[in-house]
Design a protein that fits this description.
Helices cover 39% and strands 20% of the residues. The strands form four sheets. Strands 2-6-7-10-1-11-12-13-14 form a nine-stranded mixed β-sheet. Strands 5-4-15 form a three-stranded antiparallel β-sheet, with no helix packed on it. Strands 3-16 form a two-stranded antiparallel ribbon.
């Protein structure tokens, strides 16, 4: 059903920074340790404990802000965000409010084949809360356990402008955000472990109206696919409420993935409900312009820029360049291979085809290829052997698979398995003559005009040579002999 409404969507994403210690203490940020193993008086909020700021976290936050095209504020302010929750040990969260670290950035997404900029209002730093673990059913028998390992872990919150108009745009925005953070090595993007979390503010309005409708907040959704489903459900729900004469209530809602619907959690808090005020234990955060410049100069080439360069420099299609820059590790693999063999397009074809298939079959994480048994040096060596005529393209597929399985050098595999290409014309002509003598009927048919069976003869020669005959030489000799 087509309806005269449009969605207005803004996303708030929390990204855990890849520091080894927490934001205001030296406790470990390692995921999966025993409950409450990584705690101290500071992150447990014990009386008299004072925060000590983690400089590495600031460096990562600045790097992320620059990658998101934000303006870094030379001075920002820590604030206490006051609210009660069982897993918030201090009764407040150290965050930033009216003076954030960075503002006025953007992410570019593609909508109907065109680029669209989604503005980023702000990037601010804050500490994470702990985690409540619920057990038991029904509610009367439920027990709640508190794990404070996550309490104090450094986060950045990235708040978009309400420029997103569909769940598909939201998905694209999140995918690009995750990719940028991973390229910069500031967040691993693992939504299952809570390293990247997303809240969506959703409202609807009649097309043509300027005023925003009443929004609801969809909280802590743990996959991009669920974000898309939750937004679609919520947009349709709000339209049904309005069309039936009701009013949308401002509230926080949760996504129930089993029932595929949003459910009310609580009324939405406003900023004044949190009673923000400057943290008296922490001075303003001053970011020196020269230090920011040093960070900017150390940043890697970002995915969008790298994709465009691959298209121009390596003559790759937009699709291929997009796939090969999916992760920084994969793009680095291509560049290193191309540098060694001097054939970027050929290297890209091998990576896009066989190598990605091997990775997919073996569940290899494309963010980290350091443990891959097949290295850029090995792939470049194999490509060079094909170029020299030592092996054929068909044999190269066998060699590549063996390299991936064994981690052996291509030359060693060729020697061990006797895969050197036969290029001697006299030897190939001898085999061709034998094939033609053994198949007089197909020869007669070919000479009477049924030239479509040429592939049959090629196949027979390749079979007789174990696929090692030089294809070009085989074709030339076959055409000559079949012509009589």
């Amino acid at each position: 059903m087509i309806h005269p409404y449009e969605a207005v969507i803004g996303l708030e994403c929390h990204a855990q920074l890849l520091t080894k210690s927490k934001l205001f203490c030296s406790c470990s940020t390692k995921f999966g340790d025993a409950p409450n193993a990584n705690t101290c008086p500071v992150c447990l909020g014990l009386p008299g404990a004072l925060p000590v700021f983690n400089r590495v976290a600031l460096m990562m936050a600045v790097k992320a802000s620059l990658g998101l095209n934000c303006k870094i504020n030379t001075e920002s302010q820590w604030a206490r965000k006051n609210y009660f929750y069982p897993d918030l040990p201090k009764g407040y969260q150290i965050s930033q409010y009216d003076r954030p670290l960075a503002q006025y950035g953007f992410i570019e997404i593609r909508v109907d084949g065109k680029q669209k900029k989604v503005g980023i209002q702000r990037v601010h730093m804050e500490e994470d809360a702990g985690k409540s673990l619920h057990e038991g059913f029904p509610d009367s028998n439920r027990s709640t356990y508190l794990d404070f390992n996550r309490s104090g872990v450094p986060l950045i919150e990235i708040v978009s402008d309400p420029y997103i108009r569909s769940s598909a745009e939201a998905y694209d925005y999140l995918a690009r955000l995750k990719q940028i953070l991973e390229y910069l090595s500031v967040c691993d993007g693992n939504m299952e472990e809570g390293s990247l979390r997303c809240d969506a503010n959703v409202s609807v309005r009649r097309i043509g109206e300027q005023k925003f409708g009443t929004r609801t907040e969809l909280k802590n959704i743990n996959s991009f696919r669920f974000v898309q489903k939750a937004i679609d459900y919520e947009v349709n729900r709000q339209i049904e409420v309005i069309e039936s004469g009701g009013q949308v209530v401002q509230e926080t809602r949760l996504w129930n993935s089993l029932e595929e619907r949003t459910v009310s959690m609580r009324s939405k808090e406003e900023a004044h409900d949190y009673r923000y005020f400057p943290d008296p234990d922490l001075p303003p955060l001053v970011a020196d312009s020269e230090w920011i410049k040093t960070i900017q100069q150390s940043m890697p080439e970002l995915p969008e820029s790298r994709r465009e360069r691959f298209m121009k420099e390596y003559a790759l299609s937009e699709y291929d360049a997009g796939v090969l820059t999916t992760t920084r590790a994969l793009a680095d693999f291509l560049e290193e291979t191309a540098k060694l063999c001097g054939q970027a397009k050929t290297a890209a074809n091998w990576i896009m085809g066989d190598l990605l298939r091997f990775y997919n079959d073996n569940n290899v994480n494309l963010k980290d290829l350091s443990n891959s048994p097949l290295t850029p040096t090995m792939l470049a060596g194999m490509i060079s052997l094909v170029d020299k005529g030592t092996i054929s393209g068909k044999i190269a597929k066998t060699v590549m698979e063996e390299m991936y399985k064994s981690g052996k050098d291509p030359q060693q595999i060729i020697e061990e398995k006797g895969l050197v290409q036969i290029s001697n014309a006299a030897e190939i002509e001898r085999i061709v003559n034998q094939i033609l003598e053994e198949n007089p009927k197909p020869v007669q048919q070919y000479r009477l005009g049924k030239t479509g069976n040429f592939g049959f003869f090629v196949g027979q020669v390749m079979k007789a040579t174990g696929g090692r005959a030089n294809p070009q030489t085989v074709n030339e000799i076959l055409k000559k002999r079949l012509a009589g």
